[in-house]
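ok so i was messing around last nite and threw this chain in just to see what happens. nothing serious, just curious
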Amino acid sequence: MNVVQAYYEAVNQADWQAVAGLISADFQHHVPGYPRGSKPFINLLSDYRAGFPDLQTSVVETIDNAERVVARTQTQGTHTGEFLGHAPTGRRFYASGIDIFTVADGHITERHSLFDTLAMLHQLGLR
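result:
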């Protein structure tokens, strides 16, 4: 199992300690204004899990050249907890995404991500 597969498995299990061991301490999640470091990123993942306790991401396809890994994903979850200030809707969503990871010395050092947030919000009735 490569580090990216292990990352998705740990995220799906909400094993934040395992995630911390897979990403570098100075991990960069490439979102404008987002702070560098593993702790802010793990907090973000935890916030998603609080809003969607059954959140699961399936990897549909990967392209791996050792230094860069691209994953096409399908994420689903049920909105049963507060999320971004929105009360639970009880609705389920399915949305696609693409993640591009940089891997060095057995750790994920960077993540660029595109996620169909609009589809998610529409399915949840929040758009």
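not much to say yet. The mean pLDDT is 95.
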